[in-house]
Amino acid sequence: MEWFGLTDKGRVRPTNQDVYQIEVEEQHNTALLVVCDGMGGANAGNVASRFAAQAFAASVKPALQDALDETTRQERLTRALHEANDTVFTLAGRQPEFRGMGTTLVAALVQGGRATILNVGDSRAYLFDGTRLHQLTEDHSYVEEMRRQGRITEADARTHPQKNLITRAVGVEPFVEGDLFEATLAPHEVLLLCSDGLTGMVEDDRIAQTLQSAQTLAAAGGALLTLALEGGGRDNITVALFTRGEEEA
């Protein structure tokens, strides 16, 4: 297995409110990847994303040594989401400066050739099959809902002034529901989790070209960061990458 992650505050934002976490059990051919993009005034976004990622990973990590079927993977991710949401919501209620804080969350639990993905907000998971990039998740955002309804085009969505307005986040309400997706991960395929600091600056075709030409995941991650910065770097940028290599499922 091979994995790599990086995060950068970009060229505009004064702080980085993105967080990623990667946990791997090589002997069990299992991995967990988490990306959170915090929101809130001052340092509240930092707090929301950090605590959500930590609580989520801590909830799932004990299961990484177990044999997990699809149902169990989905149950573990759903339970972890509820624990992360409880953690952030409770913190937000304790201190006035944290009130209203929240975070996106996208996570992938991989075992062998199967991956279960959960998302809340507009951070995304993609699968790169060696040629094409396939978006696995659907954004919970005002602009994405309009696009799905046919009210705006894909091109309109990329430049819409309200594209950062998300409709679902971790920690804002007492309960949040995540969407679950299943994917098959062949040995040569790459799983990409990222915040909208990447996808808002770099189109999917360029991401695919970068993944195709890079010799390692570290090289791919560095090249994607460079593209996002060259595109303007208007938001924090986070990338988490994973590939099975040649291990057996």
Q: Summed up, what is this model?
A:
This protein has 249 residues and is α+β, with helices and mostly antiparallel strands.
Topology, please?
Elements: E1 2-8, E2 18-25, E3 30-39, H1 44-60, H2 70-94, E4 102-103, E5 105-111, E6 114-120, E7 124-128, E8 133-135, H3 142-148, H4 154-159, E9 179-184, E10 190-194, H5 196-199, H6 204-213, H7 217-230, E11 237-243
Antiparallel strand pairs: 1-11, 2-3, 3-4, 3-5, 5-6, 6-9, 7-8, 7-10, 10-11
Helix pairs in contact: 1-2, 6-7
Largest sheet: 6 strands, antiparallel
- Named at the architecture level, the CATH assignment is 4-Layer Sandwich
Q: Total number of β-strand segments?
A: 11
CATH topology: Phosphatase 2c, domain 1
Total number of helices: 7
Order of helices and strands: EEEHHEEEEEHHEEHHHE
As a percent range, the share of strand residues is 25-35%
Q: Pairing-aware structural class of the strands and helices?
A: alpha+beta
Helicity, as a percent range: 25-40%
For this structure, what is the CATH class? Alpha Beta
The low-confidence parts are none
Computed CA radius of gyration, to the nearest angstrom: 17 Å
Query: What is the arithmetic mean of pLDDT?
Result: 92
Number of domains: 1
Kindly report the name of the CATH homologous superfamily.
Answer: PPM-type phosphatase domain
Shape call: globular
**How far from one another are the termini?**
11 Å
